[in-house]
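<amino_acid_chain>
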Amino acid sequence: MTTHYIRVKNKATGHEFDIPKQSFDPDRYTKVDPKRYPETTRPRRPKPNVLKGGRKTAPVETDKE
């Protein structure tokens, strides 16, 4: 019997990855659009949720002569 994987999004971190269909827990994960990511027999690469652009910093004032 082959294992079928579905694409999910972790509610806590926002990361997207594939898990075995029987391991789906609606308290921890939300299903990603099945039209875009159909059920498969091989897991796909994970998609991490990262902040873009980095942190904002305050301008630094220096005395230049």
